[in-house]
Amino acid sequence: MHAIAVALALQLQIPAPTGYVNDFARALTAAESAAIQRVVDEVRQKSGGEIVVVTLADLGGRASIDVARDIGRQWRVGALGQAGDARRNAGVIVLLKPGQRPGDGQSELAIATGSGAEGFVTDALAGRVRDAMKGGAQMVACENTMRGFKLSKDMMLDSVVYTETGVIYIIEKQRQGWSVIRP
After folding, report:
1. Which helix (DSSP H) or strand (DSSP E) does residue 110 occupy?
2. Domain 12-134 - what CATH class?
3. pLDDT, tens digit, for every residue of 47-59?
4. Domain coordinates of the chain in residue numbers?
5. Which pTM does this prediction carry?
6. Which long-range contacts (CB under 8 A, 24 or more apart) does 143-147 make?
7. Which residues of 141-179 are buried (b: 16+ CB within 10 A; e: fewer)?
8. C-alpha closest to that of 166 among 181, 150, 146
9. How far is Cα 56 from Cα 25, in angstroms, rounded to an integer?
């Protein structure tokens, strides 16, 4: 009985949500949080799906995907709609536990999806994104495409790199042996 009490005392306490961007580890700049919030708002407006981004400094020794799943369930991310409602369980949790310093190999990323989100964020895609980020992948945005969608650089994360023409950039990188992640 004592072991159960100790285990419960050591269990990770998930904080209450503060919104759709929950930077408990203080890993995001104000501009990054605002850019993420704009994406979240657009997804909610266009699809009814919900994306929640969470940073935690410590996962209490638990696997990041388990913590992300539990956050989704505890916070009830994704609409509860009726059977057949496309928005039902269309929730995505993006959980980041940053390392102590960039490149130290201590960061963890998990992307947990509700069953209603599987149509646009499959487990396979989430895993490929996670693995790419662990491998130091860089996010590159095509300025032509951004103009077409009326997006500006101030709407993007600070870490994004830009290229004028995405197709030419991709061809050049593939010739160098790089890979491209596509949904």
Report:
1. strand 108-113
2. alpha beta
3. 778 889 999 999 9
4. 12-134, 138-178
5. 0.68
6. none
7. bbeeebeeeebeeebbeeeeeebeebeebeeeeeeeeee
8. 146
9. 5
